[in-house]
Amino acid sequence: MSIYVGNLSYEVTQEDLNEVFAEYGTVSRVQVPMDRETGRMRGFAFVEMASEAEEAAAIAALDGAEWMGRDLKVNKAKPRENNNNNRRPSGGGGGWGDSDRSSRGRY
Hints:
Blueprint: E1 3-6, H1 14-21, E2 27-31, E3 44-49, H2 52-62, E4 66-67, E5 70-71, E6 73-76, H3 98-101
Antiparallel strand pairs: 1-3, 1-6, 2-3, 4-5
């Protein structure tokens, strides 16, 4: 199981999160997604702890807590859905409106 931590300050580091969550048990992993274009933190993170009991304690204590000027959103992370709608189409096709050309006469 993983914990989603949202509404984070853009100044937060993996070390900051590790320190805060370590108060509730053993932190196995901290993942802080970065924006590809800006290289900046995206404002959320994922934390994995050694046991579900530790994760539950951290969620109960930190959800809604104010940290670094922000009210944290902390809950169980939902599994990532394999959604093909996020893919960009590959390959090309004709330009849009091609079918319209055949109905027009030439001038």
